[in-house]
């Protein structure tokens, strides 16, 4: 027998209630958490309806009759990317499902294989943290016959292009995530990204920012994580000491991420070089992070991993949104050069569970926009008064300052040539005037100052 999947019973109800009219098909995602022994599935979310002129299913074109050849893989994978941004640490897209009429059952397995590899590739693109040997790379696929309701569960190792389907054990259970521990963390940002003179277009700015974020992300990964103020050995059980028969109650842990101080200047040799830059980008503000950990003997090293990954994910997601916004709306931003706020992270409860998902509320948006987006992406109604918008206060919410006149001019010119529609993004930017000289190799790291729950964390090495 292959991997085992413990599935929240609300997933069973959701799948059984899916409407599959006529000969159409429905695709969707499974959200949960993996562990070395088994995986936990807590949510199923179907792919939203695509706005097209014809009728048909949300992700399948019926032009070729009874065939899955024209399934819109790109639409499914983009939905998966959007959903993955809305998940806190510890939770991820761990599989896909496909509901088809009986006549398409033979094609289902090949289609699911194609889907799961495409989804994983699209989500992983641009990821700034590294996989470890303990990371599970098997993803689950589920085929459901719309008429007989027969279910076929298989897994694929997405790190092996030649991976073949393996059987898996799919079991429903109630209260799967009731007692999952919650980790929270506040992180202050003050990141400076030098922009070289040749880097004056959005795609060049993206390269600068991604390179800078990779340096910062590595520092977060290598940093020391305190849990409730203590540096716990990695193998220590986070919930140690609890009685087996004790009533399941969710516990909350406070995390802090400390970056080691640099070694003294006299003990290291500087390799800095001087380069003329056309300006800089500064990312600053406070971000609020959350992560959940399964309750099957979670260890401190796993808690450290999920909260660090959430810190990295929430920052990199906002930078991606900012860059997308520059391409999509640059020509309309006459105030490029005035500091603007990035989207604030807001949290919304998952109906009937002790979990929250997140979204990013842009400065010109209101809570109703978030509620509508949750409905579209996650397929459930969220009352506006249940959405927590207080976690990232406006005065401390993340912003990006664009300090450069050359970049501003090129952004406006570029936006008139390339305004391809992309996914929603963040606002942002402020300006500086005159060219600056930065010390390449040192300026990036020296500008990073992280604040974790009151502790100043400054990294000064190259």
How is this structure best described in words?
With 462 residues, this protein is α+β, with helices and mostly antiparallel strands. It has two domains: 4-50 and 67-173, Cytidine Deaminase, domain 2, CATH 3.40.140; 182-237 and 250-261 and 276-401, no CATH class. Helices cover 26% and strands 29% of the residues. The protein has eight helices and 19 strands. The protein has helices spanning 9-16, 73-85, 105-124, 202-222, 300-329, 367-378, 405-417, 443-446, and strands at 4-8, 26-34, 38-46, 92-100, 138-145, 151-157, 166-167, 169-173, 182-196, 224-227, 252-258, 273-292, 340-341, 344-349, 356-361, 399-403, 436-440, 449-452, 455-458. Strands 9, 10, 11, 12, 13, 16, 17, 18 and 19 form a nine-stranded mixed β-sheet that branches. An eight-stranded mixed β-sheet has the order 7-6-5-4-2-3-1-8, with helices on both faces. The longest helix is centred in the C-terminal third of the chain and has 30 residues, at 300-329. The protein starts with a strand and ends with a strand.
Compact overview of the structure:
With 462 residues, the protein is an alpha+beta fold. The protein has helices at residues 9-16, 73-85, 105-124, 202-222, 300-329, 367-378, 405-417, 443-446, and strands at residues 4-8, 26-34, 38-46, 92-100, 138-145, 151-157, 166-167, 169-173, 182-196, 224-227, 252-258, 273-292, 340-341, 344-349, 356-361, 399-403, 436-440, 449-452, 455-458. α4 runs antiparallel to α5 (300-329).
> Element order, helices and strands?
EHEEHEHEEEEEHEEEHEEEHEHEHEE
Mean pLDDT: 80
Overall outline: globular
Please provide the count of β strands.
Answer: 19
Domains counted in the coordinates: how many? 2
Total helices: the number is: 8
Biggest β-sheet description: 9 strands, mixed
Strand proportion, as a percent range, falls in: 25-35%
SS class: alpha+beta
> What is the terminal-to-terminal distance?
50 Å
Radius of gyration: 23 Å
Low-confidence stretches: 53-58, 60-65, 331-336, 405-462
| Helical amount | 25-40%
């Amino acid at each position: 027998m292959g991997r085992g999947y413990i599935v929240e019973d609300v997933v069973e109800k959701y799948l059984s209630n899916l409407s599959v009219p006529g000969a159409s098909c429905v695709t969707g995602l499974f959200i949960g958490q993996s562990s070395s022994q088994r995986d936990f599935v807590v949510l199923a979310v179907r792919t939203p309806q695509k706005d097209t002129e014809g009728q048909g299913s949300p992700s399948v074109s019926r032009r070729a009759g009874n065939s899955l050849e024209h399934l819109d893989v790109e639409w499914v994978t983009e939905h998966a990317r959007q959903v993955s941004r809305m998940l806190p640490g510890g939770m991820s897209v761990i599989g896909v499902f496909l509901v088809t009429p009986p006549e398409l059952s033979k094609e289902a397995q090949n289609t699911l294989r194609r889907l799961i590899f495409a989804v994983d590739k699209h989500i992983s693109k641009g990821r700034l943290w590294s996989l470890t040997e303990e990371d599970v790379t098997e993803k689950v696929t589920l085929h459901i016959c719309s008429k007989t309701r027969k279910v076929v569960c298989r897994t694929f190792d997405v790190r092996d292009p030649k991976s073949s389907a393996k059987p898996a054990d799919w079991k429903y259970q109630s209260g799967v995530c009731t007692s999952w521990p919650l980790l929270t963390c506040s992180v202050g940002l003050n990141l400076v990204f030098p922009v070289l003179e040749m880097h004056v277009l959005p795609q060049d700015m993206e390269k600068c920012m991604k390179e800078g974020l990779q340096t910062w992300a590595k520092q977060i990964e290598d940093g020391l994580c305190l849990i409730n103020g203590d540096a716990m050995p990695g193998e220590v059980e986070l919930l140690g000491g609890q009685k087996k028969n004790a009533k399941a109650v969710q516990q909350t842990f406070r995390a802090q991420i400390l970056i080691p101080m640099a070694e003294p200047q006299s003990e290291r040799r500087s390799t800095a070089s001087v380069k003329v830059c056309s300006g800089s980008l500064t990312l600053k503000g406070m971000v609020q992070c959350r992560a959940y950990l399964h309750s099957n003997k979670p260890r401190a090293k796993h808690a450290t991993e999920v909260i660090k990954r959430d810190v990295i994910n929430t920052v990199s997601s906002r930078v991606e949104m900012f860059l997308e916004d520059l391409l999509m709306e640059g020509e309309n931003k006459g105030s490029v050069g005035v500091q603007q706020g990035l989207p604030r992270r807001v949290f919304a409860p998952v109906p009937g569970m002790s979990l929250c998902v997140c979204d990013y509320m842009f400065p010109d948006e209101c809570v109703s926009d978030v509620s509508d987006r949750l409905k579209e992406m996650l397929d459930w109604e969220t009352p506006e008064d249940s959405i927590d918008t207080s976690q990232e206060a406006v005065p401390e919410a993340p912003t990006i300052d664009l300090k450069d006149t050359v970049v501003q001019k090129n952004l406006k010119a570029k936006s008139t040539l390339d305004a391809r529609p992309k996914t929603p993004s963040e606002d942002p930017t402020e300006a500086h005037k005159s060219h600056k000289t930065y010390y390449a190799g040192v300026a990036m790291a020296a500008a990073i100052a992280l604040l974790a729950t009151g502790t100043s964390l400054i990294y000064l090495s190259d």
